[in-house]
Design goal:
Mean pLDDT: 94
Number of helices: 15
Number of strands: 15
Oligomer: single chain
Radius of gyration: 22 Å
């Protein structure tokens, strides 16, 4: 089977040369194990039902016995036997070798009081579902990083091969590798729905051993999806879900949302922390997004045909798709995504900052009049930053569902997401 190269591949190589162990986290089915297998010389799978009882008993007596194998040893789903964490850390301390272990985990297990953070020994990488560039949907002819590095970078006339219909399908299919390599369109679209069903019926309770209601989980995800890419408050989601579950409390809702975050299903985007002297106060609520746009589509039980008839809803899902891809493309540079919005309505969908403090202002628009509206927002915000004597953005960009990439006379880049790459 063909291996689709992932953007974190090179970063994993670098971390293995620098640290004794590397932990790859991220959603289930996102390809963590497959990517790790490309580097590993030996493997131990803690989810193996034929061996798990033996592994658990061994861990109770002497966890280090589970660390036998040629390095790098891949320890798949390490959190099933938490004792292995300290065993790895201590082994790295003793051996003082690089690239000894690769750990993978599908939930953000918090280290308990008996576990060391592993700083300096175990380096962490977060893996997302596949971007459009990794799935070979985007041709990647426009480099996001070159836009940061070269102010004269010219990509005028580069064309995307993706139509709006193609983008809608790509968002509904999502970036789970199994969906991308599935044999037919029906299977590609079914896999994210099955993923969400599994989350709601099984993982929502096993993630932290708290029994939770499947139907309530589905209702919360559906409400979250209806508000995707917005700054809706938790109380709005609470009131929405109460139409079906009238006794739901805010504490219970928060418990479910925290579990979904631990499972890497949903994420929050913080407001941009800036010193702009605006006449109106800034919105500080967190923007609600999913780790993959297909999770939002599946939670609302929508189809590509549904979204073709409702481009307004797809606009919000499209923004979620853009957020996913931008995070992946800048992961090597510790890219941070925020948003800006003040009470007057001035906004930037995304403020993308690299570890060298360079940043870009980005709007996500499918096309049409939205491009002009987005450009007005970006220019107004840039001028506000300039007037406040703040650090100006390296560039401004509108990500679109269109066909041609170009730079406007006002300097704003217009780039189809189907052209964007690293």
């Amino acid at each position: 089977m063909e291996y689709y190269k992932r953007i974190i591949d090179d970063e994993l190589d670098f971390r293995l040369k620098t640290f004794g162990a590397v932990l790859i986290t991220g959603p289930k089915w996102s390809g963590k194990t497959t990517t790790a297998e490309q580097k590993a010389k030996s493997i131990i799978r803690f989810q193996d039902p034929d061996r798990i009882k033996g592994y658990i008993e061994t861990a109770k007596v002497k966890p280090s016995l589970l660390l036998q194998g040629n390095p790098p040893l891949l320890i798949d789903e390490w959190q099933i036997i938490p004792e292995i964490w300290d065993a790895v850390r201590i082994k790295v301390d003793i051996e003082k070798q690089k690239g000894m272990y690769i750990l993978t985990g599908s939930n953000s297990t918090n280290e308990n009081d008996n576990m060391h953070t592993g700083i300096g020994r175990i380096s962490r990488i977060k893996m997302s579902p596949m971007s459009l560039f990794e799935s070979k949907d985007s041709n990647g002819k426009v480099s996001l990083i070159k836009m940061f590095e070269d102010k004269n970078y010219n990509f005028d006339g580069v064309m995307s091969n993706l139509s709006i219909e193609d983008l809608i399908f790509a968002a509904c299919r999502g970036g789970l590798p199994e969906a991308i390599i599935a044999n037919d369109d029906k299977s590609k679209l079914f896999i994210p729905k099955d993923y969400i069903n599994s989350i709601c019926s099984i993982d929502i309770s096993t993630v932290d051993n708290v029994n939770r209601n499947t139907q309530l989980t589905k209702a919360i995800l559906k409400s979250y999806a209806r508000n995707v890419s917005t700054m809706v408050k938790k109380t709005n989601i609470l009131n929405d879900v109460r139409n079906e579950f009238s006794t739901l409390s805010i504490l219970t809702l928060e418990s479910y949302l925290n579990a979904l975050e631990k499972l890497y299903v949903i994420e929050n985007i913080d407001a941009w922390n800036t010193n702009i002297r605006s006449k109106t106060s800034m919105t500080s609520s967190k923007k609600k997004v999913f780790t993959d746009p297909s999770f939002a589509v599946a939670s609302m039980n929508l189809t590509p045909i549904d979204l073709e008839k409702d481009l307004n809803t797809f606009g919000f899902i499209f923004e979620n798709l853009c957020i996913r891809d931008l995070k992946i493309y800048t992961s090597k540079y510790n890219g941070t995504l925020n948003y800006y919005r003040d009470r007057s309505g001035l906004e930037a969908d995304i403020v993308l900052t690299l570890d060298n403090n360079k940043y870009a202002l980005i709007e996500c628009k499918l096309g049409g009049s939205g491009i002009e509206d987005g450009a007005k927002h970006l220019l107004k915000l840039k001028n506000l930053i300039k007037a406040s004597h703040g650090q100006e953005p390296t560039f401004e960009m509108i990500l679109t569902g269109g066909e041609m990439a170009f730079t406007r006379k006002d300097g704003i880049h217009v780039v189809p997401i189907g052209c964007l790459g690293i």
